[in-house]
Design goal:
The complex is a heterodimer.
Chain A (H helix, E strand, L loop, with lengths): L1 H25 L1 H25 L11 H34 L4 H4 L7 H5 L4 H20 L6 H26 L2 H4 L4 H10 L11 H8 L4 H13 L4 H28 L6
Chain B lengths: L1 H12 L1 H30 L3 E2 L2 E2 H19 L5 H8 L3 H5 L4 H29 L11 H26 L9 H14 L11 H7 L4 H4 L1 H7 L6 H29 L6
Antiparallel strand pairs in B: 1-2
Helix pairs in contact in B: 1-6, 2-3, 3-6, 3-7, 3-11, 6-7, 7-11, 7-12
The chains are: A mainly alpha, B mainly alpha.
Chain lengths: ~270, ~260
């Protein structure tokens, strides 16, 4: 029963991906520039740290090769987010305000499924490959010890980080159910999400506590990097899993409350 | 002025949006930037990096946060959106200049960011938070603001040029976002331009980027000797970008079709 449900959702998801890919190839100009836009953004992010390391030997104890590896992980997570979720999450406020959510909540699926998965960005998927290439370069330049176990742990924590990031993105748009205002929270999320591109080790005291618990942006990217550096213990892994579970539960509760508060005169 | 006043009224009307977008977001960016620079100065162990003490860097980051917003006004997308949804027709029918109307709405955010910066300066002055070696004075701030207004005009024209691609292409926002990212980095919002490697600084001298954010900050920080050069170069860039923008918009208008206003 559970297996067939998962298969049904997977089939639907791949149908949505096929549709998005054919649409992306229709608008080639946009496809091309979207790819370059992400590339420029990643270039600037790397350039920022390259310039900083011209003036300092380390940041919070992390060498340049460590920060490059951290950035590679951050870029892969970001490009996966951009590929699978970003556009969908950006469109949710308009969907709610225009009453277009009607089309999705009357379908015999989980009400969040279509709003969260309907668009798939092919151009950003190419940037996942770019991120992988950069990761390979960063791994080659990494001066510490590497092990298969640490790499596997990095991938697992990266996936956990991605889901946490999606939850945080959703928290930024769900208030629209009640506020009906479009971009205020979303802009705040944009500002906060930059934190995930900064190494955890530079944050201290209260800011660090907040950014690994209430607003766990540091868990998203720094924990996977720390796994590779061998700077993570069982307690950290349990912490990441606990944050993930709490975020998912909170998302389900708030979304369902939002759906109950939702009204429209559309469709 | 009427359009500017109406836009300001609109921005203040959505209070939650105003606080999150313009105040809390600015404070978050500012806080993160300060944490990064604290880490850099601690790790470097030097009191001065490339001519900046930590206190001077704090002032730089504070000014950069608000000037970065001021110069970029209402941000990307509004001109392209008008073209896509047909609202551009109103500039063709009404006795209304698209440049003056759009710039007035664009400038409302600039005005708010300038107001925020002045407020921050006032608070810093009130609590004596300016470092002893700071050269920020009301006069340097005034000169810096003149440059900011001119820089926001140049940025606006660059934006119109890039977004006029919407006359030809189905999506143009990625191009304007790309331009925005370049201006934030190469303009010096994240890192002062004089900390870039020499070859990059030389290359950037041939672009308007450092004039948009870095130059007004340096003037506010007391480097008023460059004021005339910056203003005259910005005038030059504004003429060039105006010519390019007008050409692009005129050619694009010939292709434009829209229903309703």
């Amino acid at each position: 029963m559970m297996g067939s449900t998962i298969l049904r959702y997977l089939r639907m998801y791949f149908a949505l991906v096929r549709f998005s890919v054919s649409r992306a190839l229709e608008f080639r100009f946009d496809f091309f520039f979207r790819f370059f836009m992400d590339l420029v953004y990643y270039g600037v992010t790397i350039g920022f740290f390259k310039v900083l390391y011209l003036h300092t030997p380390s940041l919070g104890g992390w060498r340049e090769d460590q920060v490059l590896l951290f950035l590679a992980i951050a870029l892969i997570i970001d490009s996966l987010y951009m590929t699978m979720f970003a556009r969908n999450i950006w469109q949710i406020p308009a969907m709610i305000n225009k009453g277009e959510l009607d089309y999705h909540i009357v379908r015999p699926t989980f009400s969040m499924f279509f709003p969260l998965f309907k668009s798939f960005e092919l151009a950003s998927l190419i940037n996942v490959v770019v991120g992988m290439v950069f990761f390979t370069y960063a791994i080659n330049n990494y001066q510490g010890d590497l092990s298969l176990a640490s790499m596997v742990l990095c991938v697992l924590l990266g996936l956990i980080g991605l889901v946490i990031f999606v939850c945080l993105g959703m928290f930024a748009v769900i208030p629209i159910f009640w506020t009906h205002s479009n971009f205020g929270f979303h802009m705040l999320f944009e500002a906060l999400s930059n934190i995930s591109e900064r190494p955890e080790v530079i944050f201290r005291g209260l800011s660090h506590v907040i950014l690994v618990t209430v607003l766990p942006f540091l868990v998203v990217t720094s924990f996977p990097a720390r796994a590779i550096f061998g700077e993570i213990d069982l307690l950290n892994i349990a912490h990441a899993v606990a944050v993930l579970i709490l975020m998912l539960l909170l998302l389900a509760v708030i979304w369902n409350r939002g759906i109950r508060a939702y009204s429209s005169a559309s469709s | 002025m009427i359009v500017l006043a109406a836009e300001l009224k609109r921005l203040f009307a959505y209070r939650v949006q105003f606080w999150f977008e313009l105040v809390v977001s600015s404070l978050v960016s500012l806080g993160v930037a300060l944490i990064v620079w604290r880490a850099v100065f601690e790790a470097a162990g030097d009191r001065v990096i490339q001519g900046y003490t930590f206190e001077q860097m704090i002032i730089y980051v504070v000014i950069a946060t608000f000037i970065g917003q001021a110069v970029r006004g209402s941000g990307t997308g509004t001109f392209a959106r008008d073209i896509y949804d047909g609202a551009y027709t109103r500039y063709l029918i009404y006795p209304l200049s698209v440049y003056s109307y759009k710039f007035a709405t664009f400038f409302a955010r600039t005005a708010i960011a300038i107001g925020q910066l002045l407020l921050v300066f006032f608070v810093m002055y009130l609590f004596n938070l300016f470092p002893n070696d700071s050269s920020v004075t009301p006069f340097t701030v005034l000169l810096g603001l003149i440059v900011v207004v001119l820089a926001s005009w140049v940025y606006f024209l660059m934006l119109v040029t890039v977004e006029s691609v919407a006359f030809w292409a189905d999506q143009a926002w990625s191009m304007s976002v790309m331009m925005n990212v370049c201006i934030v980095f190469f303009g010096g919002k994240l890192i002062p331009v004089d900390m870039f490697p020499d070859w990059l600084q030389t290359a950037l001298n041939f672009s308007p980027f450092p004039l948009l954010i870095f130059a007004p900050i340096k003037i506010m920080q007391g480097d008023i000797s460059s004021f005339l050069f910056v203003v005259s170069t910005l005038f030059g860039w504004s003429l060039l970008t105006l010519l390019v923008a007008r050409f692009a918009v005129r050619r694009g208008t010939l292709r434009y079709s829209g229903v309703g206003i």
